[in-house]
Write a structure and sequence with these properties.
The chain is an alpha+beta fold and 365 residues long. Helix content is 37%, strand content 25%. It has 12 helices and 12 strands. The chain is globular and about 65 Å long.
Length: 365
């Protein structure tokens, strides 16, 4: 995949412009500001209070030393954005597929046989964040992660709504308000975000994977459910002749709960008679919810029926991925044997960690 940080391709001003855009993309994707601020300080900028403050400093940089800062920060931010786009906060749906059929599906992607009125050819060398038609999907970066894992990214857009306090509007309303005291004025703003979903082919585990971008609280659950429907609908006609069997991830929860390695950052369960439910977790992600004294005492005389779990592992490559497989209590009460069709992966920065998470889920299905 092409990297926007190729120094021979851009002038200093072009780099400055791309750098500013990349920082705004990270902010749009809810990238942690403290991590961005840490990088900015490492290359020579003073500490900032927000991403726009960093941008203002970049726009004012001049001189030979400042050029070095721009070059270094350009490289660092480009890398952060690529990794975050490729791996962060992905919701994945897994399907068992016979190996011979997976190879046929891979060939359909590789030979561009899947384009239709909803899915068109895009830039397959990099992640292109330029705006697109909301009703279209475009092929994007293609990554051969290993001899057995191939990822085909698909560019689209999704929207979310945000309520924002508006002191300016409040001043206007207060000036014309004759009845009562105005406490607050909120603007309801719709944001449109460029997202990169994917289809992955895992020959190691004989599965096809649909991946949705940014399941990190930015979009409501209904919006992501709709996005999954749209993504699968792109390939519905082509995939209908193959034996895709959706994998129910509900059995993974109990097995991961009893697995000794890793720590449970959150788990949810009800008693076998349905009279009691319990949810607990660690806000630090370092503690293990299984070591909670209340949980230990309460579980002694009960047989728990688990319906949700988040588990953190420490990978040998220093990543600390979290695998979340869960449903809400209302969903559980509505149908106690309901299946769970997706997992959410957090804190991934390397593709080998993605393979680790897939392997882990498959081993417990």
């Amino acid at each position: 995949m092409k990297n926007d940080s190729n120094e021979e391709e851009y002038t200093l001003e072009e780099k400055r412009k791309i750098l500013v855009n990349n920082i705004r993309q990270l902010n749009t994707r809810s990238f942690r500001f403290d991590e961005l601020n840490k990088v900015a300080k490492k290359v020579g900028l003073s500490s900032s209070t927000g991403s726009e403050a960093i941008i203002k400093k970049i726009e004012k940089l001049e001189g030979e030393n400042d050029e070095k800062i721009i070059n270094k920060l350009f490289e660092e931010v480009s890398s952060l954005l690529q990794v975050h786009t490729a791996l962060d906060s992905k919701r994945i749906y897994l399907y068992e597929v016979p190996n011979d059929e997976l190879l046929v599906l891979k060939n359909l992607f590789d030979t561009h046989k899947l384009f239709n009125t909803k899915f068109e050819l895009g830039n397959e060398k990099l992640f292109d964040y330029s705006p697109i038609n909301a009703d279209k999907y475009y092929s994007s970066a293609i990554l051969e992660v290993s001899d057995t894992l191939f990822i085909y990214y698909i560019k689209g857009v999704r929207s979310y709504v945000e309520k924002i306090h508006s002191p300016y509007l409040m001043a206007e309303v207060e000036a014309s308000q004759n009845e009562g005291e105005v406490i607050d004025i909120l603007k309801v703003v719709r944001h449109t975000v460029t997202v990169f979903d994917f289809v992955a082919i895992d020959l190691k585990n004989n599965c096809l994977i649909y991946g949705l971008d940014l399941d990190n609280g930015k979009f409501i659950k209904a919006e992501l459910n709709k996005a999954y429907g749209k993504l699968s609908d792109i390939f519905k006609n082509n995939f209908s002749k193959f034996n895709l069997k959706a994998i129910n991830l509900r059995p993974c929860i109990k097995r991961m709960e009893h697995e000794r390695i890793g720590n449970i950052t959150k788990h949810s369960f009800a008693t076998d008679d349905g009279s009691y439910s319990y949810t607990a977790g660690s806000s630090t992600q370092k503690l293990d919810a299984r070591k909670d004294a209340f949980y230990g005492e309460g579980i002694k005389k009960s047989t728990p029926d688990f319906y949700g779990l988040r588990k953190r592992y420490i990978h040998e490559n220093t990543d600390e991925p979290i695998i979340a497989i869960e449903m809400g209590y209302r969903e559980y009460r509505a149908l106690a044997n309901a299946e769970i069709r997706y997992a959410i992966l957090y804190n991934l920065t390397k593709f080998e960690t993605l393979q680790f998470c897939i392997d882990k889920i498959i081993s417990f299905k």
